[in-house]
Amino acid sequence: MSDHIVVSAELTLESLYGAHHGWLKNWLTRKLQSSFDADDVAQDTFLRVMAGDSLQAIRDQKSFLCTIAKRVMIDLFRRNALEKAYLELLAQRPEAFMPSPEIRQCQLETLQQIDQMIDGLSNKTRQAFLLSQLENLTYSDIALRLNVSVSSVKKYMAKATEHCLLFRLEHGL
């Protein structure tokens, strides 16, 4: 009986893909002005659909797919901006201090994971966390910089720490 349910869900996913992949890829190509990026975003969109909950809950398939595709595009833009900033920073280093391509890729992947991890934090919490971790500021200094109390900074840091730990657990990091 459960095999029948799985087959039914797979057929629904197949029909969703068959009915909408073409227009989604065309829409993405117009938005991104790149057939290559459109292929990747369309594929990632359907991977997210596959990883999601029940397909039966989808009311408007095109709107649903567009919403997911927009989120995937945002992730792509963020990854590209992060990679560009990283490569610009590397370009300022003397050749003798350039990391190997393998190390550069590892560092870039780590930066992307950190970016994903802190993305879910509120603005003040993210600022407090980054000031603490990147600039090594004390809670008092952070409070002055953010114009909040030290107890607020402690709350922000507790939230950030909890968020980061949960992210690491969920993503096996």
UniProtKB/TrEMBL annotation:
<dbReference type="GO" id="GO:0016987">
    <property type="term" value="F:sigma factor activity"/>
</dbReference>
<dbReference type="InterPro" id="IPR013324">
    <property type="entry name" value="RNA_pol_sigma_r3/r4-like"/>
</dbReference>
<dbReference type="InterPro" id="IPR000838">
    <property type="entry name" value="RNA_pol_sigma70_ECF_CS"/>
</dbReference>
<dbReference type="GO" id="GO:0003677">
    <property type="term" value="F:DNA binding"/>
</dbReference>
<keyword id="KW-0238">DNA-binding</keyword>
<dbReference type="Pfam" id="PF04542">
    <property type="entry name" value="Sigma70_r2"/>
</dbReference>
<keyword id="KW-0805">Transcription regulation</keyword>
<dbReference type="InterPro" id="IPR036388">
    <property type="entry name" value="WH-like_DNA-bd_sf"/>
</dbReference>
<dbReference type="InterPro" id="IPR039425">
    <property type="entry name" value="RNA_pol_sigma-70-like"/>
</dbReference>
<dbReference type="GO" id="GO:0006352">
    <property type="term" value="P:DNA-templated transcription initiation"/>
</dbReference>
<protein>
    <recommendedName>
        <fullName>RNA polymerase sigma factor</fullName>
    </recommendedName>
</protein>
<feature type="domain" description="RNA polymerase sigma-70 region 2">
    <location>
        <begin position="16"/>
        <end position="81"/>
    </location>
</feature>
<dbReference type="Pfam" id="PF08281">
    <property type="entry name" value="Sigma70_r4_2"/>
</dbReference>
<dbReference type="InterPro" id="IPR013249">
    <property type="entry name" value="RNA_pol_sigma70_r4_t2"/>
</dbReference>
<keyword id="KW-0804">Transcription</keyword>
<feature type="domain" description="RNA polymerase sigma factor 70 region 4 type 2">
    <location>
        <begin position="112"/>
        <end position="164"/>
    </location>
</feature>
<dbReference type="InterPro" id="IPR014284">
    <property type="entry name" value="RNA_pol_sigma-70_dom"/>
</dbReference>
<comment type="similarity">
    <text>Belongs to the sigma-70 factor family. ECF subfamily.</text>
</comment>
<keyword id="KW-0731">Sigma factor</keyword>
<dbReference type="InterPro" id="IPR013325">
    <property type="entry name" value="RNA_pol_sigma_r2"/>
</dbReference>
<dbReference type="InterPro" id="IPR007627">
    <property type="entry name" value="RNA_pol_sigma70_r2"/>
</dbReference>
